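Protein modeling request. Please complete all fields; requests missing the sequence field cannot be processed.
Requester role: graduate student
Desired output: 3D structure, token encoding
Chains: 1
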Amino acid sequence: MSTSSRLERAFAQAHILPFNMCSKYVLLSDCHRGVGTSSDNFLKNQHLYFAALEHYYKNGFTYIELGDGEELWENRNLHNITEIHSDVYNLLSCFDSHNRLYLIYGNHDIIQKKNPAYHEALILRPDAVPERSLYLTHGHQASLLNSTFWRVARFLVRYLWNPLENLGILDPTSAAKNYEVKEKCEEKLRRFAEENHHILITGHTHRPVMPEELSYYYNTGSCVHPRCITCIEVERGQLTLVKWSMQARPDLILYVKREVIGGPVEIL
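Delivered output (268 residues):
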């Protein structure tokens, strides 16, 4: 099955959400929440993530996670993850209690597809201009290893690349860690979006993408960048790429800063 076939299948079964000028969505991806050990990549930015989530919750946004929320390739037990990051899951529960939480699974948490709360894809569809729908998925469908043969990839990560990473050797098959794999993955996603005239928004490669003008391919980036997290806000019919980072005031007081680094790009 080709990349196009895998993506077409995902969107054929996608849940459809309303999208209009009053909609407020925030799209984040690749948190890779772990169990609090030195290999838990989420730890270094957890304070930024929590501050961002509190902002979006208080301001009425619906939270959509585009996959790899949990690191379930390196870790076997979801309970250990939710216990370590209980403050995050408590806040996500607040979103859920107001019907403002949607979760998409990626390759590192693909086992969550057994959970009915998780989706492979979502579509934000405006009734007036359906051709401006936003197609949301993780993006691992662009890789045969990370989609069809994900069990093989999980085995390699869990028993080979994770131990070697502690020695400074990066996984050469990872779209997030290998430049050539990243380029090939993004090119496949971009080609699918252009050929089908879909506005496609993914994560997976950890590289934020926000063209200056309306395009077919966008990427949220990730929550495990060094010193920052990135996300895409959907508000007033526009897409805006945002960075959250820790900054210092002249009096040396630290604070979390929200900074626009791309857009806004008008969709509606």
